[in-house]
Amino acid sequence: MTENTPPKTQEKTIALLVAAGKSERMQSDIPKPYLQLGEKTILRQTVKNFLQHPEIDGVRVVIRREHHVLYKQSIAGLTLFPCVIGGDTRQESVRLGLEAIAHRNPVNVLVHDIARPRTSHALISQVIAALKTSKAVIPAMKVNDTIKRIANGHVRETIDREQLYTVQTPQGFHFDSLYAAHQAACGKALTDDAAVIEMAGGHVTMVDGDSNNSKITTAEDLKRMQSLLTVHSETRVGMGYDVHTLHVHDSDTHVSKQYIKLCGVRIPHTHYLVGHSDADVGFHALVDAILGALGEGDIGTHFPPSDAQWRGADSARFLLHAYELVANRGGAIAHLDLTFICEQPKIGPYRQEMIRHIAQILKLSHDRISIKATTTEKLGFTGRNEGIAAQAVATISLPKVQL
pTM of the predicted model, to two decimals? Predict the structure, then answer.
């Protein structure tokens, strides 16, 4: 289990996930954040969702002190900021979380209920985008049902629903604004962070919420969401293959490369790989495999070699693009299997470094990445050291399209 501070010194957007409630309405011996949802706990589902979003630079979770052992078990293998012990109220828990990340001086903070594990990456991106022009943003959905005020079993009033909305999380804020508003609101009893901003005289902008972004409050909610996860997800598999030519170093051609680059790792070599970009045959095969699983064409469709802007480009950009396509469709990469076909160099000594590099770009745990190598027993172009080939298989999970 790793719970380390990511290596950045300043983050643009940090997600603060609140899991410090008492879960009284769940009526379970196990606290709500640590109940199973599919193969993971509710907390782990939500944490991974934010960790995998390309615009989130760090995640911090606010928990109850007595849940610390359950929390450690739930995040095993994930890399995020150390947890924060919350207070007696949600408002106090958020304030303590903000104080814990203040030294990182983030530009934005997203505050999110841990019990909303199905928040789409599109909604997260929408909130972050709105923070470019507003200091406070909430996702909300218009009330469609008739609303009545009832007392003692009798209808007292029908409420005009025209301006009524239900509010969701994540709620996004300029960090400095929310931090100052929470400090000023100490001791108050406010139901969400937008209300804290409102009390401070700030303006809050609304973006459209998502009907799938429901909150788990009761056992029925959990049962319903278990059913949705089972019915509305599908597994896709894609294959990728790429080849690049090897050229021997020749001082007469003024080629300065004394290495080849595979999966972002520079490996000293007597030859260099030729390509329009950096000729990283490993990354290219992975990108094609992911694009294949998505039905999104191939790497040349997205980064045509005829386009001069990609000359010499770092292929990590291509892999990140493929990851973002998956994330923007609400999906996740489940596993990658990559095989290099070459006589030289030996891949074994660099395998773990390659896995670390891929894992960092795709925000995957190392056990979801496999890298192997084989030779062709000196047969064919790879056997003659004329090139290196790579083939990859990507397994991804996507929300199932309802026909």
Answer: 0.63
Residue 165: Cβ within 10 Å count: 14
Q: Is 284 helix (H, G, I), strand (E, B) or coil?
A: helix
Q: What is the pLDDT of residues 59-68, one digit of tens each?
A: 999 999 999 9
What is the residue whose two structure tokens read 């995040």? 75
Q: How many CB atoms lie within 10 A of CB 324?
A: 15
Q: How far is CA 369 from each of CA 6, 184, 295, 394, rounded to the nearest angstrom?
A: 20, 47, 21, 10
> Domains in the chain, ordered, with CATH?
13-231 (3.90.550.10), 233-399 (3.30.1330.50)
Which residues of 193-291 form beta strands (DSSP E)? 205-208, 233-248, 259-262, 265-268, 271-274
Give pLDDT tens digits for 76-100: 988 899 999 999 999 999 999 999 9
Cβ within 8 Å of residue 131, ≥6 positions away: 108, 137, 172, 173, 174
Cβ-contact 278, 302 below 8 angstroms: no
| DSSP 8-state secondary structure symbol assigned to residue 163 | T
Average pLDDT score over residue span 99-114: 96
